[in-house]
């Protein structure tokens, strides 16, 4: 019987960056479940290169579902420990060790410690694809109503603190159209970069306006907005004919998810009126809703009890908002610290893994009996 660290070393050694297939991770888990009482269903998409797995111990509505995504963000080719699973000073290093294969390892370790035949209510292990690029696998499962569960724990590095709510995530691209000309004769063209600067100033003002709507359970307690990327122009001595920028915002629960997008559209319309010749296209690429607190709080209460930590909220996006319609209560929970995720040197503490296994085992026993 493997412990969580041993499972995690195996999982870290399997590359599963979102740009590639996650099937090898699914195959690994399938090998460990196939000899048990699990009924395994695979849900494939993207020409079968991406796979979601739903494994249950019984028929009908599942009492508890443990959910974990299988993909990771890319890693620097110069990071020698990216696929090593090296253990040093009580930490296990590697891409995905924290976000979020550590939770998957805990799922497998916890399930292997239990006599699953004696469970009186069904347990499910749910693995998803493409969380890091838009929660695509979770959206697929929700669209196909692939599983129903009374309670759901979604794995993310929360420091073993139950999370009852989270902000949403939206991403848009703005393309500003100008007209190229020789930089010695600026009146012959129109600088898309100058117009982009006007837009950025407007978005900064929108950010201030969004701070008027607050939810003090979050830090920061308002919807944040950010211009993360900007690219424009073709040469130093040419008036820029085009400029592109990406804008992201993270809406708080209870706020109209279209509010920020509408504010940006209004700003672009005002700029077009104030500056003749101004032209910009606004395209929302992603608009994931916020993760609202569930009406039920039994699962959160149980996780608070076993972990000794009070429930909280998070500012980063999760699959919870997309899977909430499939369950009566969803809580985000797992080992590791999100501040070390997505970095060279990502790690999870072995103690956190062991504690997580103990907590999950206790929850399964209490809910599935």
Q: Could you walk me through the main structural features you see in this protein, from its secondary elements to its overall organization?
A:
The chain is an alpha/beta fold. It is 30% helix and 25% strand. It has a six-stranded mixed β-sheet, with helices on both faces. Strands 10-11-9-12 form a four-stranded antiparallel β-sheet, with helices on one face. A three-stranded antiparallel β-sheet has the order 4-5-15. A hairpin with a 2-residue loop joins β4 (87-88) and β5. The radius of gyration is 23 Å and the shape is elongated. 44% of the residues are buried.
CATH fold-level name of the largest domain:
Aminopeptidase
Strand residues, percent: 25-35%
The tally of helices reads 9
Strand order of the largest sheet: 1-2-6-3-7-14
SSE sequence, one letter per element: HHEEEEEHEHEEEHEEHEHEHEEH
The biggest beta sheet, please? 6 strands, mixed
Which residue ranges are poorly predicted, with pLDDT under 50 across at least 5 consecutive positions? none
Given this structure, which CATH class of the largest domain is correct? Alpha Beta
The name of the CATH superfamily of the largest domain reads Zn peptidases
Radius of gyration: 23 Å
Total number of domains: 2
Gap between N and C termini: 22 Å
Brief write-up:
This protein has 369 residues and is of the alpha/beta class. It contains nine helices and 15 strands. The protein has a six-stranded mixed β-sheet with strand order 1-2-6-3-7-14, with helices on both faces.
């Amino acid at each position: 019987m493997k412990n969580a660290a041993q499972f995690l070393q195996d999982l870290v050694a399997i590359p599963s960056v979102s740009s590639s297939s996650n099937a090898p991770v699914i195959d690994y888990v399938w090998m460990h479940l196939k000899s048990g009482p699990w009924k395994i269903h695979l849900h494939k998409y993207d020409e079968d290169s991406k796979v979601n797995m739903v494994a249950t111990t019984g028929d009908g509505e599942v009492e508890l579902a443990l959910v974990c995504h299988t993909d990771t963000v890319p890693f620097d080719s110069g990071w020698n420990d990216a696929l090593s699973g090296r253990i040093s000073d009580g930490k296990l290093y590697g891409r995905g060790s924290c976000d979020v294969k550590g939770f998957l390892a805990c799922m497998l370790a916890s399930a292997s410690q239990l006599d699953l035949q004696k469970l009186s209510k069904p347990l499910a292990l749910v693995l998803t694809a493409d969380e890091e690029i838009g929660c695509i696998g979770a959206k697929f499962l929700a669209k196909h109503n692939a599983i129903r569960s009374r309670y759901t724990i979604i794995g993310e590095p929360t420091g073993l603190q139950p999370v009852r709510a989270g902000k949403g995530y939206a991403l848009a691209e703005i393309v500003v159209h100008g007209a190229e000309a020789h930089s010695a004769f600026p009146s012959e063209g129109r600088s898309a970069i100058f117009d982009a600067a006007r837009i950025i100033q407007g978005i900064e003002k929108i950010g201030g306006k969004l701070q008027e709507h607050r939810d003090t359970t979050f830090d920061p307690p308002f919807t944040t907005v950010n211009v993360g990327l900007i690219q424009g122009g073709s040469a130093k001595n040419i008036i820029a004919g085009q400029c592109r920028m990406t804008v992201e915002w993270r809406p708080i629960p209870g706020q109209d998810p279209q509010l920020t997008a509408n504010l940006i559209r209004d700003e672009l319309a005002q700029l077009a009126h104030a500056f003749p010749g101004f032209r910009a296209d606004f395209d929302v690429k992603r608009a994931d809703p916020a993760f609202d607190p569930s009406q039920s709080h039994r699962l959160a209460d149980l996780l608070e009890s076993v972990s000794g930590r009070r429930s909280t909220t998070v500012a980063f996006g999760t699959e919870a908002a997309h899977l909430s319609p499939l369950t009566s209560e969803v809580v985000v929970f797992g080992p590791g610290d999100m501040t070390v995720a997505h970095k060279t040197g990502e790690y999870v503490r072995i103690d956190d893994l062991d504690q997580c296994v103990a907590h999950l085992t206790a929850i399964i026993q209490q809910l599935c009996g």
